[in-house]
Amino acid sequence: MRALDEPLARRFARTALGHVGQEYPNSLGHVLGCNTDARTPRELHPAFYGSFDWHSCVHSWWTLLTLRRLFPDASEAKDISALADGTFTPDKLAAELAYAQRPESRGFERPYGWAWFLYLHLEASRHSDRDWAGLLEPLARHFAAGFADYLPKLTWPITTGTHANTAFALTLAHEWADAFDPKLKNLIADYADANFGDLEEYRGWDIGGDSFLSPVLSVALLMQRVMPPADFAEWFGRVLPEGGWLQTSCAPVTVSDPTDGKMAHLDGLNLSRAWALRSIAPGLDSPRANRMRALADEHFAASLEAIDGDYMGSHWLASFALLALLTE
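Above: the chain's sequence. Below: its structure in token form.
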């Protein structure tokens, strides 16, 4: 897989800088409680109104802050800093928190946007020259409390290949909780063990026409985070054994129409699979680990060019490419 060098980082940064402040087109996940709730994206979300939808704007900001930290001398780093200073302000973030606290917003961006916001806050905490983390923390704590309330009520995890996927969200939230909320970290681990610990060999369908996540690899990523390495290796060997789904059915997918936002999700499936495969490989025996890395490389190469292609993909795909590149 190509390394994350400065030219590629700058390419990702330019792409994200070009859309985090682009208000339209916009897909609002907005529940109206009265006539006066009919407002523009920028009015509703003064910090995260860009990138086609709220969650894509949030994780594109994660992309930008991550690239700023890793490549501080790139010319785009100054642009990121200036834009973040003007975006992460007390007034704008107070408005975002007030929106999230509305009774009508109980399910707003649950769980995908919640998890990405926690991940953004975690990244912001690594930038000691700014107080972005302090400004973002009230909303992060709000979403963390949402997870603590939601998980005990979620009788069955959601295993779709799109935004509602439980395991993907808990993987990001677990990393944040490891740094900021031990109780939530334990709750996530207990939930994962109770719902996924006894899985048998995976024989299900893994691709839907609008998937950007692999249900089984999303679960595997979560279990890798919450299980001791030896226990996870045994779990993985049982759920995805040699000669099983990974060898017979896990191949890169193609997008027939990148201008269709749902179909463009399949580029995300390639990139999220690459992230999962690369993340899991180091804990396995060398021959199998090498095969998984090679499979990850195939998936990544299949969709790298989409990160700055049509807007239906370019408004979000760089984040998933970056997840894959940051592994190992």
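The chain has a mean pLDDT of 97.
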